[in-house]
Amino acid sequence: MICESADLIRIAKKRNAGEDFDPKLHDDSDTVVDRLISIIVHEKIQLEKDKRMDQLDREESERQKKASKKFMESE
User: Fold this and answer.
1) Which of 3, 28, 30, 44: disulfide with 8, CB 3.0–4.6 Å?
2) CA distances (Å), 70 to each of 6, 60, 64, in order?
3) Positions of the region Disordered (predicted)?
């Protein structure tokens, strides 16, 4: 959402990852924009990783509860 509202997605699509800013080629970008895109992408990846880890933790907790319940029922 932040990237979209700042038009950074359109700018990022015009640039290759790690490509140096060239005012002849990239009239709407500069090193500040590059840094912002990098930070936003990094944060988005971290949020997705955290979300996935939370999901895996919940799934593992559910598996442990089921295993414990099954064990208790077998006694």
Assistant:
1) 3
2) 53, 15, 10
3) 52-75
Q: What is the pLDDT along the chain (75 residues), one digit of tens a residue?
A: 556 665 666 666 666 555 666 667 766 556 677 777 778 788 888 889 999 999 999 999 999 999 999 888 887
CB atoms within 10 A of CB 37: 19
What's the one-letter identity of residue 15? Answer: R
Residues 6+ apart with CB under 8 A from 29: 11, 14, 15, 21
Structural domain spans, the chain = 2-15+28-74
Looking only at Cα atoms, what is the longest distance across the chain?
A: 76
Residue of 31, 35, 37 whose CA lies nearest to 13: 37
